[in-house]
Structure formats: C-alpha cells, structure tokens
Design brief:
Layout: E1 8-12, H1 16-27, E2 32-36, H2 39-45, E3 52-57, H3 65-74, E4 81-85, H4 90-98, E5 103-106, H5 111-142, H6 147-157, H7 162-169, H8 173-187, H9 192-203
Helix pairs in contact: 5-9, 6-8, 7-8
Length: 214
C-alpha cells in the first residue's frame, strides 16, 4: 500500500493529554494518527477514501461527539467510530452504538483493549476499501446525472421497462432509451443488472423508494 493510502486513525478529543497519549500508543506500533481538538478541524481534513477509523470523545465544546456522528451519518459516511468518554453511562453507549458506532470506551480505558479494537477495525476497513472506493466513485458520478436522468434511473431501479417509464414521465420510449444509455455511460455500468446492483450498493435499498424528481 502506498504511503498516501496508509490507514490512519483520526483522534478527535479536546483533551490534549488524551490525544497525545493515544497517538503515542498507536504510533509505537506503526499506526498513523491525525489529532484534532475539535470536530470542525477534523471535518476539513477527513478523507473518506482512505482506510481509517475515528476515536471520538463524546463531550466537546461547539460540536459534540454525537453531533459529529450525526453529521457523518447525514453524508452517508462509512467511517467507523470508536467513542470514548470520561462520563460514560449505559444510555450514552447505547445511543452511540445504535447510531452506528463500533465501540464505546469509558476513560480511563485499558490501552491494550483499545489497541486491539483499533487494529481489528482498521484491518476490516482495509479489506472493504476496494468496495468502498467503488461506492464513493458512483456517488460522485451520480452528480453528473440530469434531473430527468435521475427520474429515469429511479424507475429503472424499480424494474420498469422503457414503455412504462415513458408513460410515467410523459415522454417517448425512444427518449427513455437515450436516457438509459446516457445513465449507464455516466455511471460506468455496462448492463442494467450491474447498474441496479451498484446503485443499490452505493445508496442502500431506500433509493428504491425515492420518487421522480419532477
């Protein structure tokens, strides 16, 4: 793996001592880290295409750990989050895990347990990286679609044939076929079956319930 693609652990904690201590622990076994005292600075530096995980403090000024988790979820980020808190309780840990966190540690935590959890998380992320890169690329390519092409795509995902799509959108079947070809080209998919598989993989099954844009 090239240096620019090396896995990284993002550490976001307003406690400088906690950041430094964890970074030292991880660096000592060859794990690269990037430390931030707040969520805003992290969001500016975060690279979604890089294998990584986030060790995140719950209580921070301005943007809390839970608020940062919500922002990442809102942009469909797949970044695994390990929460840490000096004031943890069961409801707090349940909230974190229900919203997608992979673990929750109370400070002071056992260093070896934290190291083991981070290493296993990074290993899993590295294995999933090719698939994730494909999803990220597809999401970017989706932005190239026109509103009408997105209308056609949504109906394609439901399994509608060109004549049905044409009737639904009040356009000709020939125009639908032109849009279908353009969609495949822009998204880099050779077949309709591959297109459906890739789009559902990138956006989740909820996209099947979206309606036409206009």
């Amino acid at each position: 793996m090239e240096k620019t693609e090396q896995s990284v652990v993002y550490i976001v904690d307003d406690d400088e001592g906690a950041r430094t201590s964890l970074a030292w622990l991880l660096n000592s076994v060859g794990i690269q880290t990037e430390c931030f005292s707040g969520a805003a600075a992290f969001l500016e530096a975060f690279d979604p295409q890089r294998p990584s995980c986030l060790v995140l403090d719950v209580r921070m000024p301005e943007i809390s750990g839970f608020q940062l988790q919500e922002r990442l979820n809102a942009i469909a980020s797949e970044l695994p989050i390990i929460f840490v808190s000096g004031h943890g309780d069961i409801p707090m840990s349940v909230r974190a895990l229900q919203n997608g966190a992979v673990d929750f540690f109370e400070k002071p935590y056992n260093s070896q347990q934290m190291l083991d959890r981070i290493q296993s998380t990074l290993k899993a992320e590295e294995q999933r990286q090719p698939e994730r890169a494909r999803r990220i690329l597809l999401r970017e390519r989706m932005k190239l679609l026109s509103p009408r092409e997105r209308d056609v795509l949504i109906l394609m995902l439901r399994g509608d044939v060109s004549k049905v799509i044409a009737r639904e959108l009040n356009i000709s079947a020939r125009t639908v076929d032109v849009h279908r070809a353009s969609i495949k080209e822009k998204l880099g998919c050779q077949s309709s079956a591959g297109l459906v598989r890739d789009v559902v993989l990138a956006f989740g099954p909820q996209i099947l319930h979206d309606g036409p844009v206009s």
